[in-house]
Amino acid sequence: MKAMPAAELSRFFALLGARFLEDDNYTHQQMFGHLADDEFTAHEAAEYLEVSMATFRRYVRSGKLSPIHLVGRSQMFATRDLKALKRFTLGSNR
């Protein structure tokens, strides 16, 4: 898949998504359960949290979020930690 051109890859996932979502009676677990033990890079984590990279880095520096391990120079973050931080920040903004 990595060898696919970006436009073709985009079309592939659009078709896959359209077909997958034909029946919209899926539970959250059915849609995202496979991500429960997944790890995110800093960029992916910032995107998930819907914050800029600068804000994300502040979270890490302040200890609100810690990487679970390093892969080369990339920090990896646990899904459960990201969910907890997102719940906390959403709860404090209300």
Gyration radius over CA: 16 Å
Largest sheet: spatial strand order: 1-3-2
The percent range for strand residues is 5-15%
User: Can you tell me the overall shape?
Assistant: globular
| N/C terminus separation | 41 Å
Order of helices and strands: HHEHHEEH
Number of strands: 3
Question: What CATH first level would be assigned?
Answer: Mainly Alpha
Outline of the structure:
Helices cover 55% and strands 12% of the residues. With 94 residues, the chain is mainly alpha-helical. The chain has a single domain, classed as Multidrug-efflux Transporter Regulator, Chain: A, Domain 2.
Structure, explained:
By secondary structure, this protein is mostly helical. The chain is built from 5 helices and 3 strands, in the order ααβααββα. A hairpin with a 2-residue loop joins strand 2 (69-71) and strand 3.
